[in-house]
C-alpha cells in the first residue's frame, strides 16, 4: 500500500457522498495503490449508512463521539500506507490538492507537508479566533508553519511510530514531530466553503485547544527535564520560606518580637509545604501520564472495522 487517506467524520452524511468520489478521483490520477479510511466519530445521522454504500473504503466506527484527535489517531493506527494523508470530512479541503502536497514532499524531501489555507472560506468569528490562536501558537509552540489548523497534511509512515494522539493535539502534530528531528514543509492549498451540514467548531474546542497548546509548550520545553520547571518553582517557594524563617528568627531573638501576634509563621510553613508539593506532585503527575499511555491504552474505543473493496 502506497497511500492511506484518513478522514475523521462526525455527522457528515451529505458531505461523505461528495468527498469519497473526489478522493478516489484524485488518488486514481496519482496511480499508486491507496486506501481510504473514514473514521466515524459516533455520528447520529446517516453518515455510516452512506459510507457503507461506497467503495473502496475502510470504515472505523468509534463507540461514541471521542473527538477529532481520537478519530484521527484510530485512522492512523489502522493505516497501512507508506504515506498517510489526512483531511477533514466537511469537504472544505479539496482532495485535488493532494498531489501538490506530495510534490512538495518529494522535491523538498520532507517528512511532513502541511496545507496552508491562505484564503479561507470561514465565518468572521472562526477566522478571528484562528488568527488569535496562531499568535499564541507562535509564542508557545513555534512550529514555523502558517496554518496548523489545516487538516490537509501528508506524513511519512514512520512519523507515527512513537506518537499517540489525545486531547486536541492533532493541530500540533507537525510541531511535535519537528522537535523529534522530522522535517516539516508547507504548501498553499485551496479552501472551499462548507456546502452541507454545520461546523463542529465551538467554544469548547477553543478552550481545549488552548489547554493543549500550553501542554505542548510544556513538552517542548521540559519533556526531558520536568524537574527544571517544577523543581525550580519548588525551590523558589522553599527558599522564600527559608528567608522568611530567618527574618522571623531575627525578630524573635534579637528584637524580642513575639511570633504569636503575627501570621508570618503560618506563611512560612505554607511556602515550605507548597514548595515540596510543586517539586513532588508535578513529577509524579508526569510519570503517571507517561505510564498510562505507554501501556497501550487509547482514549477511545472502536466498535467495528468495515473494509469494502472495489469489487464489493
From TrEMBL:
Signal peptide: none
GO cellular component: plasma membrane
Keyword Glycosyltransferase part of the UniProt annotation: yes
Membrane-spanning intervals of the chain: 229-254, 266-289
UniProt-listed Pfam families: Glycos_transf_2 (PF00535)
Domain Glycosyltransferase 2-like: 4-162
GO terms, biological process: lipopolysaccharide biosynthetic process
Keywords carried by this UniProt record: Cell membrane, Glycosyltransferase, Lipopolysaccharide biosynthesis, Membrane, Transferase, Transmembrane, Transmembrane helix
A GO molecular-function annotation: glycosyltransferase activity
Domain of life: Bacteria
PANTHER family named in the record: UNDECAPRENYL-PHOSPHATE 4-DEOXY-4-FORMAMIDO-L-ARABINOSE TRANSFERASE, UNDECAPRENYL-PHOSPHATE 4-DEOXY-4-FORMAMIDO-L-ARABINOSE TRANSFERASE-RELATED
Name of the protein: Glycosyltransferase
Protein species of origin: Candidatus Kerfeldbacteria bacterium CG15_BIG_FIL_POST_REV_8_21_14_020_45_12
Lineage start: Bacteria, Candidatus Kerfeldiibacteriota
Amino acid at each position: 500500500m502506497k497511500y492511506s487517506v484518513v478522514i475523521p467524520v462526525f455527522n457528515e452524511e451529505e458531505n461523505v457522498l461528495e468527498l469519497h468520489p473526489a478522493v478516489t478521483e484524485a488518488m486514481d490520477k496519482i496511480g499508486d495503490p491507496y486506501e481510504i479510511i473514514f473514521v466515524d466519530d459516533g455520528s447520529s445521522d446517516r453518515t455510516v449508512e452512506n459510507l457503507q454504500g461506497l467503495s473502496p473504503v475502510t470504515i472505523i466506527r468509534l463507540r461514541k463521539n471521542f473527538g477529532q484527535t481520537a478519530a484521527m489517531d484510530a485512522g492512523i493506527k489502522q493505516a497501512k500506507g507508506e504515506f498517510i494523508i489526512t483531511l477533514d470530512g466537511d469537504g472544505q479541503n479539496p482532495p485535488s490538492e493532494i498531489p501538490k502536497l506530495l510534490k512538495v514532499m518529494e522535491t523538498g524531501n520532507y517528512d511532513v507537508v502541511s496545507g496552508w489555507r491562505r484564503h479561507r472560506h470561514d465565518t468572521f468569528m472562526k477566522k478571528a479566533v484562528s488568527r488569535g490562536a496562531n499568535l499564541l501558537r507562535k509564542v508557545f509552540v513555534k512550529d514555523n508553519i502558517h496554518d496548523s489548523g489545516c487538516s490537509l497534511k501528508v506524513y511519512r509512515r514512520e512519523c507515527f511510530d512513537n506518537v499517540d494522539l489525545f486531547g486536541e493535539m492533532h493541530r500540533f502534530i507537525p510541531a511535535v514531530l519537528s522537535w523529534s528531528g522530522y522535517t516539516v514543509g508547507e504548501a498553499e492549498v485551496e479552501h472551499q466553503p462548507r456546502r452541507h451540514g454545520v461546523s463542529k467548531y465551538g467554544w469548547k474546542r477553543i478552550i481545549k485547544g488552548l489547554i493543549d497548546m500550553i501542554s505542548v509548550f510544556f513538552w517542548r520545553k521540559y519533556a526531558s527535564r520536568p524537574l527544571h520547571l517544577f523543581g525550580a518553582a519548588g525551590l523558589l517557594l522553599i527558599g522564600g520560606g527559608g528567608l522568611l524563617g530567618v527574618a522571623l528568627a531575627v525578630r524573635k531573638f534579637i528584637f524580642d518580637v513575639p511570633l504569636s501576634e503575627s501570621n508570618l509563621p503560618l506563611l512560612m510553613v505554607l511556602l515550605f509545604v507548597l514548595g515540596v508539593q510543586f517539586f513532588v506532585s508535578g513529577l509524579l503527575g508526569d510519570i503517571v501520564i507517561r505510564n498510562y499511555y505507554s501501556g497501550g491504552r487509547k482514549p477511545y474505543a472502536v466498535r467495528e472495522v468495515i473494509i469494502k473493496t472495489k469489487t464489493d
